[in-house]
Amino acid sequence: MSAAARIARRVATALGVLLAACAVAAEPVPYAGPLFDAHLHYNVEAASGPYPLADVLGRMQRAGVRAIVANSRPNDGTKALAASPLARAAGVTVVPFIRLYRDRADYDSWFRDPSIEAMVDAELSAGTAAGPYRGLGEFHLYDSANADGPVARRLMQLAERRHLAVLAHADDDAIVRLFAHAPGARIIWAHTGIGGVPVARVRALLAAHPTLMGELSYRPGLTDAQGRLAPAWKALFAEFPDRFVIGSDTWINARWDAYESLMTDARRWLGDLDPETARRIGWGNAAALFGLPDPR
Ligand SMILES: [Zn+2]
Predict the structure, then answer these.
(1) Helices (H) then strands (E): counts for the chain
(2) Residues 194-230: pLDDT tens digits?
(3) CA angle (75 as vertex; 70, 80 as ends), nearest 5
(4) 212 alpha carbon – ligand 1 mean position (Å)
Protein backbone atom coordinates (compact mmCIF):
# COMPACT_ATOMS: atom_id res chain seq x y z
CA MET A 1 0.00 0.00 0.00
CA SER A 2 1.43 3.42 -0.90
CA ALA A 3 1.80 6.18 1.70
CA ALA A 4 -0.94 8.13 -0.03
CA ALA A 5 -3.28 5.14 0.10
CA ARG A 6 -2.52 4.61 3.82
CA ILE A 7 -3.32 8.23 4.58
CA ALA A 8 -6.52 8.04 2.55
CA ARG A 9 -7.54 4.93 4.48
CA ARG A 10 -6.84 6.55 7.85
CA VAL A 11 -8.87 9.61 6.85
CA ALA A 12 -11.75 7.38 5.75
CA THR A 13 -11.64 5.45 9.03
CA ALA A 14 -11.60 8.66 11.06
CA LEU A 15 -14.52 10.01 9.05
CA GLY A 16 -16.45 6.81 9.63
CA VAL A 17 -15.91 7.05 13.40
CA LEU A 18 -16.97 10.69 13.31
CA LEU A 19 -20.13 9.93 11.33
CA ALA A 20 -21.04 7.09 13.72
CA ALA A 21 -20.57 9.44 16.67
CA CYS A 22 -22.84 12.02 15.00
CA ALA A 23 -25.51 9.37 14.44
CA VAL A 24 -25.39 8.43 18.13
CA ALA A 25 -25.55 12.10 19.14
CA ALA A 26 -28.59 12.64 16.90
CA GLU A 27 -30.53 9.92 18.71
CA PRO A 28 -32.49 11.63 21.53
CA VAL A 29 -31.53 10.57 25.03
CA PRO A 30 -34.27 8.51 26.73
CA TYR A 31 -35.98 10.04 29.74
CA ALA A 32 -34.07 8.84 32.81
CA GLY A 33 -36.13 10.26 35.69
CA PRO A 34 -38.74 8.59 37.91
CA LEU A 35 -41.86 7.05 36.38
CA PHE A 36 -45.41 7.04 37.74
CA ASP A 37 -47.33 4.10 36.27
CA ALA A 38 -50.86 5.49 36.36
CA HIS A 39 -52.60 2.45 34.88
CA LEU A 40 -51.60 -0.78 36.57
CA HIS A 41 -53.65 -3.92 37.29
CA TYR A 42 -52.63 -6.69 39.64
CA ASN A 43 -55.34 -9.17 38.77
CA VAL A 44 -55.91 -12.59 40.28
CA GLU A 45 -54.35 -14.39 37.29
CA ALA A 46 -51.07 -12.58 38.00
CA ALA A 47 -51.17 -12.53 41.79
CA SER A 48 -52.14 -16.16 42.27
CA GLY A 49 -50.04 -17.36 39.34
CA PRO A 50 -46.60 -16.58 37.99
CA TYR A 51 -46.29 -13.00 39.28
CA PRO A 52 -46.12 -12.85 43.10
CA LEU A 53 -45.61 -9.51 44.83
CA ALA A 54 -41.80 -9.78 44.94
CA ASP A 55 -41.73 -10.41 41.20
CA VAL A 56 -43.94 -7.50 40.10
CA LEU A 57 -42.30 -5.08 42.53
CA GLY A 58 -38.89 -6.16 41.22
CA ARG A 59 -40.05 -5.36 37.70
CA MET A 60 -41.23 -1.91 38.79
CA GLN A 61 -38.01 -1.21 40.65
CA ARG A 62 -35.83 -2.23 37.70
CA ALA A 63 -37.95 -0.03 35.39
CA GLY A 64 -37.50 3.01 37.64
CA VAL A 65 -41.22 3.13 38.51
CA ARG A 66 -41.55 4.97 41.83
CA ALA A 67 -45.35 5.13 42.15
CA ILE A 68 -48.35 3.28 40.74
CA VAL A 69 -52.10 3.60 40.46
CA ALA A 70 -52.96 0.08 41.62
CA ASN A 71 -56.25 -1.62 40.86
CA SER A 72 -57.22 -5.24 40.45
CA ARG A 73 -59.97 -7.75 39.78
CA PRO A 74 -60.99 -8.49 42.50
CA ASN A 75 -59.62 -5.79 44.83
CA ASP A 76 -57.44 -8.23 46.82
CA GLY A 77 -54.42 -7.66 44.55
CA THR A 78 -54.51 -3.92 45.23
CA LYS A 79 -54.84 -4.49 48.97
CA ALA A 80 -51.91 -6.92 48.92
CA LEU A 81 -49.73 -4.36 47.10
CA ALA A 82 -50.82 -1.62 49.51
CA ALA A 83 -50.00 -3.76 52.55
CA SER A 84 -46.69 -5.16 51.34
CA PRO A 85 -43.45 -4.08 53.05
CA LEU A 86 -41.84 -5.15 49.75
CA ALA A 87 -43.41 -2.09 48.07
CA ARG A 88 -41.72 0.23 50.53
CA ALA A 89 -38.46 -1.69 50.16
CA ALA A 90 -38.69 -1.33 46.37
CA GLY A 91 -39.32 2.41 46.72
CA VAL A 92 -42.76 2.12 45.09
CA THR A 93 -45.63 4.27 46.43
CA VAL A 94 -48.99 2.52 45.99
CA VAL A 95 -51.97 4.76 45.14
CA PRO A 96 -54.96 2.41 45.51
CA PHE A 97 -58.05 2.58 43.32
CA ILE A 98 -61.26 0.55 43.74
CA ARG A 99 -61.89 -1.71 40.77
CA LEU A 100 -65.58 -2.07 40.00
CA TYR A 101 -65.21 -5.74 39.04
CA ARG A 102 -65.36 -8.80 41.25
CA ASP A 103 -65.06 -10.96 38.13
CA ARG A 104 -65.23 -10.64 34.34
CA ALA A 105 -69.04 -10.71 34.29
CA ASP A 106 -69.10 -7.32 36.04
CA TYR A 107 -67.50 -5.61 33.00
CA ASP A 108 -70.82 -5.64 31.20
CA SER A 109 -73.22 -4.67 33.96
CA TRP A 110 -71.47 -2.56 36.64
CA PHE A 111 -73.07 0.67 35.38
CA ARG A 112 -76.54 -0.53 36.39
CA ASP A 113 -75.71 -2.98 39.20
CA PRO A 114 -76.43 -1.62 42.74
CA SER A 115 -74.32 -4.38 44.29
CA ILE A 116 -71.26 -2.68 42.74
CA GLU A 117 -72.17 0.54 44.56
CA ALA A 118 -72.43 -1.42 47.81
CA MET A 119 -68.99 -2.93 47.18
CA VAL A 120 -67.52 0.53 46.53
CA ASP A 121 -69.03 1.85 49.79
CA ALA A 122 -67.62 -1.09 51.75
CA GLU A 123 -64.16 -0.70 50.21
CA LEU A 124 -64.15 3.06 50.83
CA SER A 125 -65.02 2.49 54.49
CA ALA A 126 -62.35 -0.17 54.93
CA GLY A 127 -59.54 1.60 53.04
CA THR A 128 -56.15 -0.08 52.55
CA ALA A 129 -52.92 -0.47 54.49
CA ALA A 130 -51.45 2.29 52.30
CA GLY A 131 -54.26 4.65 53.31
CA PRO A 132 -57.66 5.50 51.85
CA TYR A 133 -58.57 4.66 48.27
CA ARG A 134 -57.81 7.57 45.94
CA GLY A 135 -59.93 6.64 42.95
CA LEU A 136 -62.38 4.39 41.13
CA GLY A 137 -61.62 2.21 38.13
CA GLU A 138 -60.44 1.25 35.72
CA PHE A 139 -63.97 0.77 34.42
CA HIS A 140 -65.03 0.16 30.83
CA LEU A 141 -67.85 1.66 28.79
CA TYR A 142 -67.80 -0.26 25.50
CA ASP A 143 -71.17 1.33 24.64
CA SER A 144 -71.01 5.02 25.48
CA ALA A 145 -74.75 5.16 26.31
CA ASN A 146 -73.96 3.03 29.38
CA ALA A 147 -72.25 6.09 30.86
CA ASP A 148 -75.80 7.20 31.67
CA GLY A 149 -76.58 4.02 33.62
CA PRO A 150 -77.89 4.80 37.13
CA VAL A 151 -74.90 3.33 38.93
CA ALA A 152 -72.41 4.99 36.59
CA ARG A 153 -74.10 8.33 37.26
CA ARG A 154 -74.14 7.90 41.04
CA LEU A 155 -70.52 6.67 41.17
CA MET A 156 -69.40 9.71 39.19
CA GLN A 157 -71.21 11.96 41.68
CA LEU A 158 -69.63 10.04 44.56
CA ALA A 159 -66.19 10.46 42.99
CA GLU A 160 -66.66 14.21 42.65
CA ARG A 161 -67.96 14.55 46.21
CA ARG A 162 -65.18 12.42 47.75
CA HIS A 163 -62.35 13.81 45.56
CA LEU A 164 -61.67 10.41 44.04
CA ALA A 165 -60.04 10.26 40.63
CA VAL A 166 -61.70 8.06 38.01
CA LEU A 167 -59.84 5.85 35.52
CA ALA A 168 -62.23 5.46 32.59
CA HIS A 169 -61.79 3.30 29.49
CA ALA A 170 -64.33 4.98 27.24
CA ASP A 171 -64.77 6.78 23.96
CA ASP A 172 -65.00 10.57 23.66
CA ASP A 173 -68.80 10.55 23.73
CA ALA A 174 -68.83 8.62 27.02
CA ILE A 175 -66.29 11.03 28.53
CA VAL A 176 -68.67 13.90 27.77
CA ARG A 177 -71.55 11.97 29.36
CA LEU A 178 -69.48 11.24 32.51
CA PHE A 179 -68.66 14.94 32.91
CA ALA A 180 -72.35 15.78 32.53
CA HIS A 181 -72.98 13.78 35.73
CA ALA A 182 -70.06 15.31 37.63
CA PRO A 183 -68.55 18.39 35.94
CA GLY A 184 -65.73 18.75 38.48
CA ALA A 185 -64.71 15.07 38.57
CA ARG A 186 -61.07 14.25 37.97
CA ILE A 187 -61.18 11.81 35.08
CA ILE A 188 -58.08 9.98 33.87
CA TRP A 189 -59.00 8.92 30.34
CA ALA A 190 -57.50 5.45 29.96
CA HIS A 191 -55.58 5.26 26.65
CA THR A 192 -56.86 8.76 25.70
CA GLY A 193 -59.25 7.08 23.30
CA ILE A 194 -58.21 3.52 22.49
CA GLY A 195 -60.26 3.70 19.27
CA GLY A 196 -57.95 6.41 17.92
CA VAL A 197 -60.23 9.43 18.27
CA PRO A 198 -58.58 12.33 16.36
CA VAL A 199 -56.04 14.49 18.18
CA ALA A 200 -58.22 17.55 17.44
CA ARG A 201 -61.07 15.96 19.42
CA VAL A 202 -58.73 15.14 22.33
CA ARG A 203 -57.58 18.78 22.28
CA ALA A 204 -61.19 20.03 22.34
CA LEU A 205 -62.09 17.80 25.30
CA LEU A 206 -59.00 18.90 27.27
CA ALA A 207 -59.92 22.53 26.63
CA ALA A 208 -63.56 21.98 27.64
CA HIS A 209 -62.81 19.93 30.80
CA PRO A 210 -59.96 21.27 32.95
CA THR A 211 -60.00 18.19 35.22
CA LEU A 212 -59.57 15.71 32.35
CA MET A 213 -56.21 13.94 32.05
CA GLY A 214 -55.08 11.50 29.37
CA GLU A 215 -53.28 8.20 30.08
CA LEU A 216 -51.26 7.05 27.08
CA SER A 217 -50.92 3.23 27.02
CA TYR A 218 -52.18 1.62 23.77
CA ARG A 219 -52.94 5.06 22.28
CA PRO A 220 -53.02 4.61 18.47
CA GLY A 221 -50.78 7.03 16.58
CA LEU A 222 -48.79 8.18 19.61
CA THR A 223 -45.52 6.88 18.19
CA ASP A 224 -44.19 5.84 14.78
CA ALA A 225 -42.83 2.41 13.81
CA GLN A 226 -39.48 3.30 15.44
CA GLY A 227 -41.18 4.22 18.72
CA ARG A 228 -40.59 7.93 18.26
CA LEU A 229 -43.20 10.46 19.32
CA ALA A 230 -45.57 11.58 16.53
CA PRO A 231 -45.43 15.34 15.75
CA ALA A 232 -49.17 15.84 16.39
CA TRP A 233 -48.80 14.44 19.92
CA LYS A 234 -45.65 16.41 20.58
CA ALA A 235 -47.61 19.57 19.72
CA LEU A 236 -50.51 18.52 21.96
CA PHE A 237 -48.14 17.87 24.89
CA ALA A 238 -46.58 21.31 24.37
CA GLU A 239 -50.07 22.82 24.60
CA PHE A 240 -51.16 20.74 27.62
CA PRO A 241 -47.95 19.67 29.41
CA ASP A 242 -49.73 19.09 32.72
CA ARG A 243 -52.58 16.90 31.44
CA PHE A 244 -50.98 13.58 30.46
CA VAL A 245 -49.66 10.54 32.33
CA ILE A 246 -48.16 7.20 31.32
CA GLY A 247 -49.30 3.67 32.19
CA SER A 248 -48.50 0.00 31.60
CA ASP A 249 -52.03 -1.46 31.60
CA THR A 250 -51.08 -4.91 32.88
CA TRP A 251 -54.52 -6.28 32.05
CA ILE A 252 -53.16 -9.72 31.09
CA ASN A 253 -50.11 -11.61 32.28
CA ALA A 254 -48.30 -11.02 28.97
CA ARG A 255 -48.11 -7.34 29.92
CA TRP A 256 -46.22 -8.29 33.10
CA ASP A 257 -43.76 -10.24 30.93
CA ALA A 258 -43.26 -7.08 28.88
CA TYR A 259 -43.34 -4.66 31.83
CA GLU A 260 -39.75 -3.43 31.67
CA SER A 261 -39.74 -3.10 27.88
CA LEU A 262 -43.05 -1.15 28.04
CA MET A 263 -41.39 1.33 30.39
CA THR A 264 -38.29 1.45 28.16
CA ASP A 265 -40.59 2.29 25.23
CA ALA A 266 -42.16 5.13 27.24
CA ARG A 267 -38.73 6.45 28.20
CA ARG A 268 -37.74 6.47 24.51
CA TRP A 269 -40.62 8.68 23.30
CA LEU A 270 -40.49 10.83 26.44
CA GLY A 271 -36.91 11.54 25.31
CA ASP A 272 -38.35 13.28 22.25
CA LEU A 273 -39.77 15.99 24.55
CA ASP A 274 -38.00 18.79 26.35
CA PRO A 275 -36.77 17.53 29.76
CA GLU A 276 -39.36 19.44 31.80
CA THR A 277 -42.35 18.16 29.81
CA ALA A 278 -40.92 14.63 29.84
CA ARG A 279 -40.66 14.67 33.61
CA ARG A 280 -44.19 16.04 33.99
CA ILE A 281 -45.70 13.30 31.83
CA GLY A 282 -43.43 10.57 33.17
CA TRP A 283 -43.85 11.48 36.82
CA GLY A 284 -44.97 14.95 37.88
CA ASN A 285 -48.55 15.18 36.63
CA ALA A 286 -49.70 12.01 38.38
CA ALA A 287 -47.64 12.88 41.46
CA ALA A 288 -49.34 16.28 41.66
CA LEU A 289 -52.78 14.70 41.21
CA PHE A 290 -52.24 12.54 44.31
CA GLY A 291 -50.00 14.90 46.29
CA LEU A 292 -46.86 12.74 46.17
CA PRO A 293 -43.47 14.35 46.88
CA ASP A 294 -40.57 13.95 44.45
CA PRO A 295 -38.79 10.66 45.04
CA ARG A 296 -35.37 10.73 46.63
ZN1 LIG B 1 -56.54 -1.31 31.95
Answers:
(1) 14, 8
(2) 999 999 999 999 999 999 999 999 999 999 999 999 9
(3) 70
(4) 17
